[in-house]
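# nightly structure sweep
# worker-07 picked up a monomer target from the shared queue
# config: single-sequence mode, recycle default, output format = structure tokens
# input follows
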Amino acid sequence: MKTRFLSSLQLASCFMVLSACGIQIDSTSESTPDTAISSQSNINHSGSEILKKNRFHLITPTGEKIFASMKAWETGQVAQANTLAQPAMCASNASKVLEMSGINSYSSPLLMTMVNSVKKRGGLVMELPKNRSEIAKALKSVFNGRIPVGSFVSGCLRPDCSGQAGDGHIALVGDIDDAGYIKIYHNNWYRPDNNPEKKWYQHMIPMDWYNKGYRRKWMPTPWVYLQRDSAGLPLDIKVRLPEIDDLDPTNYYVTLTIPVEILNEVKANKGVVTDGKGGISNFVATDSSASKPCRSVRVSDPSDPNGVNMRSSPSGTILCSLSNGTRGELISREGLWTRVKAECNGKVSEGLVFSAFAESFCTQ
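# output follows
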């Protein structure tokens, strides 16, 4: 994980929260209508122009609004830089963009609250495995690997997103760059401080911004490239910027989250695919392309050859010891514990194991 340099005051504040997006802000003091873009009424949501000029793997009407807000916030954040172009504000910035799009159901200064809000409303939440080919298989179950614009990509150092500020990050899925990488928009922290040579490199925050003393910037960076087979289905992935480690699915525990508003539009065949050159084609969601997210889990403790204990509750009795490599069904993540359903002493049982020993994975 790259080092984020914070003041002693910020460090003290960050220690009190559970994610990099954990500082609560007073939304009533964020801005005034004269100084910042504050609502969807201020934004040009011209869908036809958006679709003609940008390449998208999959975008819906709600995605068009979110994308327009993402782009508007690149300049809109300037008026609120002292508040939002700061550490521990990634979820607050993502929430701001959603609110500018007319979506207020997921706003929170905590990334896990945003993700859980989507889950409660019936959206799709998929914890990605860390193996590249397994990630591709997992994404294959999401509209044949076409991730809708406006989806969330969040990463945490630990499976349950516990820890202190600096251990997590969240972004919104946008368009496709010239090299075919999915671009994600987020409160980027990548800057010369994070490089041993202290030099500026492409995709870091702008130097003029950095020289003004800011250490975050809402902007796009390339995320992953999906290598596809002859049928257009994902085979493998390439990570463009492993330096932005907390959004690297091969490094951190990364979750893909699709709000129900977007999910329903895709399933209703309201999504389109664009080539960025004026070509627009309808995306038809099939049963296979809209399949439910994989809920498989593999339980293993590399440091203990005896396997992993499955308990009835955190302080309850040990139901059995699961052999390393045991596969089961992921029921839920509950903080430091993960509830799984697996074969236990000859019968399928449900119980708790330490989240650190339960890795999500998908097979087809």
